[in-house]
Design a protein that fits this description.
Layout (H helix, E strand, L loop, with lengths): L4 E3 L5 E3 L18 H9 L1 H21 L5 E2 L3 E5 L11 E2 L2 E10 L8 E6 L5 E6 L3 E9 L5 E11 L16 E7 L2 E6 L4 E6 H4 L6 E2 L4 H4 L7 E6 L10 E9 L5 E6 L5 E5 L6 E7 L5 E9 L3 E9 L9 E2 L2 E6 L8 E8 L5 E7 L9 E8 L3
Parallel strand pairs: 18-22
Antiparallel strand pairs: 1-2, 3-10, 4-6, 5-6, 6-26, 7-8, 8-9, 9-10, 11-12, 12-13, 13-14, 15-16, 16-17, 17-18, 19-20, 20-21, 21-23, 24-25, 25-26
Helix pairs in contact: 1-2
Length: 377
């Protein structure tokens, strides 16, 4: 179960954002009449009809019945030092390393994590894979507040409007999540679409509803489309706006295209691109600044990661924004293909950044989860 919690006056935790796994009835099997079957074998046309009916019945049943969620086992190996060369170091740029996990699972659909949203309790999370699957679960912590494992893990295919998996529609490369209360927005990079899920009501059994998008999104390059999204909450500039950022859709000046959907000021803006970094996710700080997770790859140096902080007040249609670098890390530190970023406030008041990597379902890469504390808000 994923939940975003708030405390009532009595201190009791109450869920704002949860899902339940429902039982799915088995679709009725097609009933065959012996007499009709015998006559079909005697008449070629009837035989063809019988074959088509037999093939169509399971397909119709599949359209009616969503695939059931699956509980999976996830093993975790702790990452105690972000820089193995300096195992006692904890400060890296504007962040302090809190710990990390290397995650594995025997379930074949596990991996390829492209985005994550951690609930306000710092434990429950929802993530997605670039093959169109949900992953939900809980982050466990040790007595020192460091990540120690993942429990209650569930995977399920993301469902399209007709109840079939999104992948069955050719909608894959699901790369980004934005949360607005119980609603989740998901960006589908390969087809340049955004869909909405009523996750608070139906959880992983929620069905996608496509939303209208600006024309510029449809023109983004193949496999370099929407990679990061965030919904601006009430009380901040651009409240009610869905910010959608491309991985490497470039404007005429070579900067990264981004979009403001809904809200008070709709339109396009640009993010200054530097040092060959692409956008891989984003998250909003409570005070309003936008964090950009970036990564780059070269055959000579491998992958690198960077996080920049952009003032939300600077974002407007037509604007070109830049940000202050909070951290840079290369292969000398415990990173991989970092693609997911989430922010939550811990019980003691610290702002915690959670990052996950996309292993591309490759034996040469890892699925890792890292946590940092933001030193200066």
């Amino acid at each position: 179960m994923i939940a975003r919690y708030a405390r009532s006056a009595s201190g009791e935790k109450r869920s704002h954002f949860q899902f339940s796994i429902r039982r799915v009835r088995k679709a009725p099997r097609a009933h065959h009449r012996v007499g009709t079957a015998l006559r079909a074998f005697a008449h070629p046309a009837l035989l063809l009809v019988a074959i088509l009916f037999a093939l169509a019945a399971p397909a119709a049943a599949q359209r009616r019945a969503p695939a059931a969620p699956v509980k999976i086992d996830v093993a975790a190996r702790t990452i105690d030092a972000f820089d193995p060369r300096e195992p006692d170091a904890v400060r890296f740029g504007a962040l302090e390393f809190r710990g990390g996990l290397e995650l594995t699972s025997p379930y074949r659909e596990f991996g390829g994590l492209s985005a994550i949203r951690v609930a306000a309790d710092g434990e429950h999370f929802v993530s997605l894979t670039d093959k169109g699957n949900w992953l939900t679960g809980r982050i466990a912590y040790d007595v020192h507040g460091r990540p120690s494992g993942v429990t209650d893990a569930v995977m399920a295919p993301m469902l399209g409007p007709d109840g079939r998996p999104l992948a069955a529609h050719g909608w894959y490369d699901t790369e980004s999540i934005a949360q607005d209360g119980g609603t989740l927005y998901v960006g589908i990079e390969r087809v340049n679409r955004i869909v909405r899920f009523d996750f608070g009501r139906a959880g992983v059994l929620a069905r996608a509803t496509p939303i209208p998008i600006p024309p510029g999104i449809a023109k983004l390059p193949n496999n370099k489309g929407l990679e990061a999204m965030a919904v601006v909450p009430k009380g901040l500039p651009l409240a009610g706006t869905l910010i959608a950022i491309s991985e490497r859709g470039l404007d005429a000046a070579g900067n990264l295209k981004a979009f403001l959907i809904g809200g008070p000021s709709q339109g396009e803006f640009s993010i200054r691109r530097s040092d060959d970094f692409d956008i891989s996710d984003c998250a909003l700080l409570p005070a309003g600044d936008l964090l950009l997770l970036e990564r780059k790859f070269s055959w000579w140096s491998g992958v690198a990661m960077r996080i920049r902080r952009v003032a939300l007040a600077a974002i407007a249609p037509g604007a070109l924004v830049d940000g202050v670098k909070l951290i840079f890390a290369d292969m000398g530190r415990q990173i991989d293909n970092m693609e997911g970023l989430s922010v939550h406030r811990a019980a003691q008041g610290d702002l915690i950044l959670t990052l996950v990597s996309d292993d591309n379902f490759s034996a040469l890469q890892r699925t890792i989860l890292l946590q940092f504390k933001l030193v200066d808000e």
